[in-house]
């Protein structure tokens, strides 16, 4: 370790939150609270860069500790993990978006919510780590080169349309925004892509959707005669809130539109299976709920490549429920009653779960379907419910039993989107509130049924 010297100001860096005892970082003397500034003289803006440059190499790490700069030798020559956990993946902050997409949810949010909710990220690093969709419009050539150099694959890309003019309009740009050359370049350099299309009726549906799917299928590995390319496509319906002041008018799919989409997609998937050996493009679960149709079986989803975009999550939910239902006891040693909160979108799923669990003697569970008045419009996902809407729907009825809230409703650890905590909701409705995992198993364990 070098002798420390004081510096006037540190730039962006990675804050160390934990060091595993006996690890290379622990041996080197790195401590929680240290800020990693450079490795071998080069800045590391994020954890991905740090892991890349230290993998299999003994490295000199420059740290900032209590305003003092010091250097340590980090011995990782044998490829052993460094033993460092960082407070944040990104030392230089999230890369934000300069598009003004016609369907952007951030632009449709009410005022007065906490500032972090209005952050529009378009960060390729979060695409690789968390599966966030990015447009590839806010990146430099050096960042594309880094994706290839560090093998940040797969990437999740918001395509919406492969027609440059139409894509530009959808992204709120005045100029054409081509995507196919970028996707082909990534494929040629060994990077896989999972694509997303936010479908806006009257804009990028019909013939435009057919053209987009046809263009993307040309970049599937089968057509490129290689291993990499566009691996899958998710098609999700546009969501519209009641806060679209001074924004382009958008139609939302209704039941009839969704039913037609399901029918036409069967033909598209049949053709893709014949040509590519895969269905290639999938509809998100919302389409089935809108059309009042059952979600397909597990085989339909081919390993669930678009699960994080809501494609097939309901099938996994139902399969897990079926497995648990086969092992439910006849009676519960500890009687429980209550309400399982859900948004309109998943109401049928939660009704079915409550009915299955209530078949156990001593268990009385009902679905509390809550309408989203906070956002209004077509927003009906459970994860976007607020404590205020739950309190308004459940009321102070004096009913017995707990209120079970799925953890997907909470943000930043402990609060709803309207910044209320579960304890605030409990006080408002006069009932116990239990936060449970968003799965049949999570609720079954809370009820003591597993």
Q: What is the CATH architecture term of the largest domain?
A: Alpha-Beta Horseshoe
Mean of all residue-level pLDDT scores: 92
Termini gap: 53 Å
Number of helices: 15
Specify the structural class: alpha/beta
**What characteristic shape results from the CA principal axes?**
globular
Tell me the fraction of residues in β-strands, as a range: 15-25%
Q: What is the H/E order?
A: EEHEEHEEEHHEHHEHHEHEHHEHEHEHEH
User: What percent of the residues sit in helical stretches (DSSP H or I)?
Assistant: 25-40%
What's the CATH superfamily of the largest domain, by name? pyruvate-formate lyase- activating enzyme
Gyration radius, in Å: 25 Å
Count of distinct strands: 15
Q: What's the structural domain tally?
A: 3
Q: How would a crystallographer describe the biggest sheet? A: 7 strands, antiparallel
Query: Spans with pLDDT under 50 lasting ≥5 residues?
Result: 1-10
CATH topology (fold) name of the largest domain: pyruvate-formate lyase- activating enzyme
Name of the CATH first level of the largest domain: Alpha Beta
Task: Describe the protein's architecture and organization.
The protein has helices at 24-28, 47-54, 124-130, 141-149, 164-170, 180-188, 206-217, 221-224, 255-276, 285-291, 313-325, 347-358, 387-394, 422-429, 440-446, and strands at residues 5-6, 14-19, 35-39, 42-43, 59-65, 68-74, 84-86, 155-158, 193-199, 230-237, 281-283, 331-343, 361-370, 402-406, 433-436. The chain folds into three domains: 5-86, PDZ domain (Pdz3 Domain, Roll), CATH 2.30.42; 106-310, pyruvate-formate lyase- activating enzyme (Alpha-Beta Horseshoe), CATH 3.80.30; 318-446, Rossmann fold, CATH 3.40.50. The model is unreliable at 1-10 (pLDDT under 50). The strands form three sheets. Strands 1, 2, 3, 4, 5, 6 and 7 form a seven-stranded antiparallel beta sheet that branches. A four-stranded parallel beta sheet has the order 8-9-10-11. Helix 9 crosses helix 10, helix 11 (313-325) runs parallel beside helix 12 and helix 13 packs parallel to helix 14 (422-429). It starts with a strand and ends with a helix. With 450 residues, it is an alpha/beta fold. The chain is globular.
């Amino acid at each position: 370790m070098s002798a420390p010297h004081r510096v006037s100001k540190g730039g962006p860096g990675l804050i160390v939150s934990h060091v595993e005892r006996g690890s290379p970082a622990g041996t080197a003397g790195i401590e929680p609270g240290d800020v990693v500034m450079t490795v071998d003289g080069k800045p590391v803006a994020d954890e991905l860069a740090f892991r890349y440059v230290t993998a299999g190499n003994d490295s000199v790490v420059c740290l900032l500790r209590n305003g003092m700069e010091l250097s340590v030798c980090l011995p990782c020559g044998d490829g052993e993990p460094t033993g460092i956990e960082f407070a944040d993946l990104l030392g230089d902050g999230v890369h934000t978006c300069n598009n003004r997409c016609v369907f952007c949810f951030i632009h449709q949010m009410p005022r007065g919510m906490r500032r972090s909710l209005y952050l529009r990220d378009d960060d390729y690093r979060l695409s690789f780590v968390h599966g966030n969709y990015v447009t590839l419009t806010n990146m430099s050539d050096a960042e594309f080169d880094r994706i290839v150099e560090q093998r940040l694959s797969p990437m999740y890309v918001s395509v919406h349309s492969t027609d440059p003019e139409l894509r530009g309009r959808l992204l709120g740009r005045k100029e054409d925004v081509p995507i196919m050359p970028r996707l082909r370049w990534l494929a040629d350099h060994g990077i896989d892509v999972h694509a997303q299309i936010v479908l806006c009726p009257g804009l990028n549906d019909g013939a435009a959707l057919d053209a987009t799917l046809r263009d993307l299928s040309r970049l599937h590995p089968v057509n490129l005669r290689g291993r990499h390319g566009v691996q899958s496509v998710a098609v999700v319906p546009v969501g519209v809130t009641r806060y679209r002041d001074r924004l382009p008018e958008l139609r939302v799919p209704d039941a009839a539109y969704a039913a037609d989409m399901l029918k036409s997609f069967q033909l598209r998937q049949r053709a893709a299976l014949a040509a590519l050996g895969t269905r290639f493009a999938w509809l998100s679960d919302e389409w089935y709920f809108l059309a009042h149709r059952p979600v397909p079986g597990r085989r339909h989803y081919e390993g669930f490549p678009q699960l994080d975009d809501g494609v097939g999550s309901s099938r996994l939910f139902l399969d897990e429920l079926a497995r648990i239902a086969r092992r439910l006891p006849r009676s519960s040693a500890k009687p429980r009653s209550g309400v399982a909160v859900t948004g309109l979108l998943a109401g049928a799923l939660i009704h079915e779960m409550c009915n299955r669990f209530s078949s156990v003697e001593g268990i009385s569970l009902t679905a509390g379907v809550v309408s989203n008045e906070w956002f209004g419009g077509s927003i009906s996902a459970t994860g976007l419910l607020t404590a205020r809407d739950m309190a308004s729907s459940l009321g102070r009825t004096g009913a017995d039993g707990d209120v079970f809230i799925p953890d997907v409703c909470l943000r930043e650890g402990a609060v709803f989107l309207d910044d209320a905590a579960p304890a605030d909701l409990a006080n408002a409705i006069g009932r116990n509130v239990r936060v449970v995992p968003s799965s049949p198993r999570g609720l079954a364990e809370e009820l003591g049924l597993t």
